[in-house]
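explain this chain.
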Amino acid sequence: MQNLRTLVENRRNAIDLFLDERVSQLTTLAYTQSYSQLQDEQYLEKIFTLMQMRSKSFIDLGIIDQDGNHVAYSGPYKLKD
């Protein structure tokens, strides 16, 4: 039972670390890029490509305004508007 507990705890820690790293990436993006820059889909695509070069953790990247509108999108789906 103790081995199973240890295994589960290690997996939980690994998942927490993974998610913390993703939040850090998005926080850095939010604090280093202006909203007007991120609204430009060509610029957003460049940022997304740079993010994908280091890690394939993000499938897409979208910018949503204060009214809930999807104003810019980079990724394989048609989610804008």
Summary: The radius of gyration is 17 Å. The chain is about 60% helix and 10% strand. The longest strand covers residues 70-74. The longest helix spans residues 2-32.
